[in-house]
Design goal:
The complex is a heterotetramer, with two copies of chain A (about 300 residues) and two copies of chain B (about 280 residues). Chain A is α/β, with parallel strands linked by helices and about 300 residues long. Helices cover about 30% and strands about 20% of the residues of chain A. With about 280 residues, chain B is α/β, with parallel strands linked by helices. Chain B has three domains: about 90 residues, Beta Barrel (Elongation Factor Tu (Ef-tu), domain 3), CATH 2.40.30.10; about 130 residues, Rossmann fold; about 55 residues, no CATH class. The chains are: A alpha/beta (about 300), B alpha/beta (about 280). Chains in contact: A-B, A-C, B-D, C-D. At the A-C interface, strand 11, strand 13, helix 6 and helix 7 of A face strand 11, strand 13, helix 6 and helix 7 of C. The structure holds flavin-adenine dinucleotide (FAD) (2 copies), flavin mononucleotide (FMN) (2 copies) and FE2/S2 (inorganic) cluster (2 copies). One FE2/S2 (inorganic) cluster binds next to loops of chain B.
Chain lengths: ~300, ~280, ~300, ~280
């Protein structure tokens, strides 16, 4: 595999919530499983970090199919957080990921606040986990998830509890399906989050006009991909203006220029999701492209461009 | 061998019937690994719309080439129809679990509906090359004579081909599963036991075929279709409901019984028909 | 021009807020001006209705350029509601539109509640206006607009006041940039709205990585076009389940199948916006396509498919 | 005549330099109406990405044809580069207000930057056909010799052509506006008064040209570019800031002075340089 990043004089490293990343490019939760399947297509050791598929205390079956449908420049998914559960993750999935010597950030969720804190506590006792990403924003399960992510007070309460349960770096992943992302962001910051990831998917629906039924068995699903990029970017902008903890930009990043839009706007790192389905090696091209951009701009560190947005 | 991104040159992209195309791709690395029943995820556009890759079964596997047979179904396949020889395209593959030919098989029954013929042509090719199984019958159904005409382009096949059309314009008038059932009823049970049955087609057909196989206690391998995003097993988008295996099932409060969602792209696309749980059962 | 709709045995008519439309296809506010420019490209007399560019009491300059930017399967606009104002609209624009003998619905907005009611009152005194569409959702002006559209209580207050000021059919156009569209919809219904239009555009941003500045002079703009279709459709679904007044579906409709998704989901009519830029005659194709669909399904009236969505 | 959607057959689509193409379209109806300085909105894709039509100036107007000259700038123009003769494409047009040749003009100065040459070629063609103006000079600037080489493909022109390149690889070393200024300084004021000046190019060039025209009190018609959605005047997306005319201006609290936003696609793309208000002035 000729997938090695070039040796370079340009410093792409960033620190988020105390986690040191050699570059700002991470894989987004749920879009690359736990790495076994994508590892022949993408050299994981080159990445800044990876965020695992969201796990819960117990294994979860997820939603019935159909679970995905393509939309203009995007896709809806209603996986419903199918996952192997805490025990199997720790036993079988984590050891595989540790071999790449990059920070492994574990995305997790619960149906109740109790489940969130319990899982936060258990994950903290596991070796080889660099940080946690709490998903309070998944639109595809009835309880939990988005319930906590749309009301500042509920989000504050939940994150305060999780904060007490773990001393690992705590990243909170926000839902974009809200009126005022800055308010939620501030309350989560106050509750003790070390960083924010945004955004998760936007709730959408597609109807099959032949059958007169929603295409997805779950009726609605989460929109991801290039279609949402301008929307997520706007939310990142509102959020970096509202909080002082680092923000990780997510949504429709396909190439380096897209990632740069987020970084310039003030995101300290980015996550790549849907792009992995089309170009599994997209993250490496993005890393290279960011580096080429910095060289072209005469910068020697990534820091110089983070948040450099000039607004009239 | 794990899947890779392959860049392949188009050798030909022939229109072999209304809306049907055969495309031959030069890609020695992929050809070496590929097995009948496997598929590729082809990038159909450089734009973000259509966004996702499209899955296509291998209908032929050569030394340095793989071949696909496709039908225009929407925008992605329409774009593909305009591709020209010498153009470079890229795919991820080979993907999925292929067919397994039981060692004891004395005969093979192949039941195909519409474009579902594609993976079964690769299977037939492989059986014929290995010459271990003396007797292969293909039951091929479509809506009209045009649908089943595509198989002419793949002759000479040593297999016997029976056709069925819904409008009766060629062969048996009716569903291919009924044609197959007729045939089955004239076979001796002992012969059926030594027969490998393979099917691929629309979901309605796969379901009936699975039921027939179940009723006659025949092992039947079904290649399934499903909406796919990644094709490699990482998005969990393409699952089908299957029987629980090895006690690792999961139970949903709303649904009775234990089952498992398994990925068509990774555990499939070929499943033993007994594994599958059809909704409503 | 061979743009006449075929004579037909299929009844495409619908009634919304007492306005009778011969078919459910309208032009969305702001995407076809006041008709002069598009009239050589689209036979307006074939349409169900038209919604004019939003007007205010006084003429308004709008935002500085650049005002638009393309995004994946969509576009952002930050026109800032540039318009000719009430007086010129009535004097110069309305007479032109009346010649097509289709319902003319006037979209309007104000900076304050007082401006909204004053304009509502004045428009009610003008002949040739079939109904009003109140824009409480424009993301591109600082005061007014979205200020009223994101909080149920404020929306209720505003619409109650406008309701008192006019006896014309009153349609309220909602913003999609909210956590719970159904809540806003219900409060607007309670305040006396006769129908709802949704959605307006989603707030987004694009950054020029060369200049490190937002592409739009206004920084953010409203996302329209196919990209938003699954999102708007989901909101229409939530809204038809929450209110009993008619809902008009808007967002990314390019062809008949897209319009049908909204109608099947329960929208009583649809509006076409961005599609007009690409295919100015798209509305006529959509009308034809809806008719062909009904024939194919063996229906003789549009009513039979409105809200026929089958959900598990 | 108001604009229409026209379906036109491509007669040729010739690559005339690195990234530069000339495309001739057969469309008698549009050709009949078209005037120099007008443009068309071309549909560049059937997919929703790229979504919007793209604006192109007419660089030539024939009896039954119109021609465009384009440079690959992004995805839309890349797609256009792959179009083949005989293909049918569609555009809305002709659009906008064209150039107006003052009746008193004894000479014409044309100042073009880069691809801004396109509408000025149509203007030159028209001036030469009408033979009313004895003297035409074209000042054509680009970054490199390659940029200005495109004009070779349009020869023979009876106009005198002066070139400028930023890297000095051909003609004057520097900006075309400086080249023009040099030239102007050697002209008598009386001659300049009888000269029509026309310009098109990047915004920076248009601005400087406008300033030169203002300083020397020359009437100068500038063709502007702007991001466009509809191209026909209905979306208000493409506006530029202009002086108020006929007291119908509008004043924004944050900005001093009265001005008007006017649509490049409808009131333009050609404006009298005195009408334009450049930011920062
Ligand atoms: C394992 C597998 C093997 C297949 N083999 C063949 C084959 O050999 N020959 C052949 O002609 N077709 C095959 N198909 C179907 C083929 O993938 C679809 O026809 C194709 O994706 C349609 O793309 P489109 O853009 O033309 O249509 P669209 O306009 O996108 O959609 C038309 C229909 O195609 C299906 N479809 C679209 N995208 C996908 C996707 N990413 N995954 C699955 N289905 C999709 C949907 O049901 C949709 O309703 C196979 C599908 C699978 C899952
Ligand atoms: C009135 C007018 C006349 C023009 N005449 C010519 C001409 O004769 N020859 C020529 O080569 N180019 C001309 N242009 C510019 C041409 O329209 C753009 O180069 C083209 O739209 C780029 O499309 P793209 O998809 O290749 O690039 P993209 O990847 O979309 O963008 C590249 C750049 O092109 C510009 N652009 C993109 N879309 C539009 C749009 N809808 N409207 C305006 N600008 C856009 C933007 O500045 C963008 O940064 C003209 C523009 C206007 C407004
Ligand atoms: C198939 C799929 C599964 C996902 N699963 C999860 C998940 O388990 N947890 C989570 O927080 N986000 C999940 N996401 C959201 C992504 O991590 C990401 O936030 C979103 O897709 C937007 O980024 P993108 O446009 O780059 O895909 C999932 C997205 C997709 C497409
Ligand atoms: C250029 C532009 C201008 C618009 N102006 C208005 C407006 O004045 N008032 C309003 O209520 N909506 C306005 N809209 C929103 C549209 O009416 C419509 O709600 C939105 O574009 C979504 O529909 P679409 O995806 O079909 O374009 C405007 C949209 C565009 C693209
Ligand atoms: S398509 Fe992604 S897991 Fe099968
Ligand atoms: S591009 Fe729409 S008004 Fe000019």
């Amino acid at each position: 595999m000729d997938q090695r990043a070039p040796q370079s004089d340009i410093d792409l490293s960033v620190t988020i919530a105390g986690i040191v990343l050699k570059n700002p490019v991470m894989l987004a939760s749920g879009t690359w499983g736990y790495g076994e399947e994508i590892s022949s297509l993408l050299d994981l050791s080159q990445l800044g970090a990876v965020i695992t598929k969201g796990i819960s205390l117990q294994p979860s079956c997820g939603n019935p199919p159909p679970r995905i449908v393509e939309t203009p420049s995007g896709m809806l998914n209603a996986i419903g957080l199918q996952n192997v559960g805490f025990a199997e993750f720790v036993e079988k999935k984590l050891p595989f990921l540790r071999q790449f010597h990059i920070p492994v950030i574990v995305n997790f969720f619960g149906k109740t606040a109790g489940e969130y804190t319990e899982l936060g506590k258990r994950l903290s006792a596991v070796e080889g986990i660099a940080g946690l990403e709490v998903n309070i924003s998944c639109p595809n399960i009835k309880e939990g998830g988005i319930f906590f992510g749309t009301e500042p007070a509920r989000a504050h309460e939940l994150i305060s509890a999780v904060r007490k349960a773990t001393s690992l770096p705590l990243i909170v992943k926000l839902s974009p399906n809200v009126t005022d992302i800055a308010r939620i962001a501030r309350s989560v910051e106050e509750a003790g989050a070390d960083a924010l990831s945004l955004t998760n998917t936007f709730t959408g629906m597609v109807v099959d006009v032949e059958t007169c039924a929603p295409v997805l068995a779950h009726s609605t699903g989460g929109l991801s991909g290039p279609a949402i990029r301008p929307l997520s970017l706007r939310m990142v902008w509102e959020t970096v203006n509202a909080v002082s903890i680092p923000v990780i930009g997510i949504g429709g990043i396909m190439e380096a220029a897209d990632a740069l839009q987020y970084l310039i706007t003030g995101a300290r790192a980015v996550q790549i999701g849907t792009a992995l389905f089309i170009r599994p090696d997209a993250p490496l091209r993005i890393i290279e492209g960011i580096e080429a951009y910095l060289r072209h701009k005469g910068c020697s560190t990534l820091q110089e461009i983070i948040g450099c947005l000039k607004v009239k | 061998m794990p899947p890779r991104i392959h860049y392949a040159k188009i050798k030909y992209n022939r229109n072999i019937g209304p809306g049907f195309f055969r495309m031959l791709l030069a890609c020695p690395d992929a050809a070496r690994e590929a097995r009948p029943g496997q598929f590729i995820m082809l990038q159909v556009s450089d734009s973000t719309d259509p966004l996702l890759r499209r899955p296509f079964s291998l209908c032929g596997i050569g030394n340095d080439t793989i071949e696909i047979l496709f039908r225009i179904a929407g925008r992605g396949t329409s774009l593909m129809a305009s591709w020209r020889p010498e153009q470079i395209v890229n795919f991820i593959g080979p993907l999925g679990r292929g067919f397994e030919i039981p060692e004891t098989a004395q005969a093979v029954y192949i039941i195909a509906g519409g474009i579902g013929i594609a993976p079964l042509l690769a299977l037939t090719q492989s059986i014929e090359q290995n010459k271990t199984i003396p007797d292969t019958c293909i039951f091929f159904g479509g809506k009209t004579a045009e649908d089943v005409a595509v198989i002419e382009d793949f002759k000479p096949l040593s297999a016997t081909v029976f056709t069925a059309t819904e409008n009766g314009s060629q062969g048996f008038h009716g569903l291919v599963t009924d044609l197959f059932l007729n045939h089955l009823q004239h076979q001796r049970a002992a012969d059926i036991d030594r027969t490998g049955v393979f099917g691929c087609g629309p979901q309605s057909m796969a379901r009936v075929l699975g039921a027939i196989a179940g009723k006659h206690s025949i092992t039947c391998q079904l290649s399934l279709e499903s909406m796919m995003a990644c094709g490699v097993g990482s998005c969990l988008g393409c699952v089908v409901k299957t029987q629980t295996i090895q006690g690792s099932g999961c139970q949903q409060p709303s649904e009775p019984g234990s089952f498992q969602y398994r990925r068509v792209c990774a555990e499939g696309p070929v499943f033993d028909s007994r594994e599958l749980v059809w909704e409503g059962e």
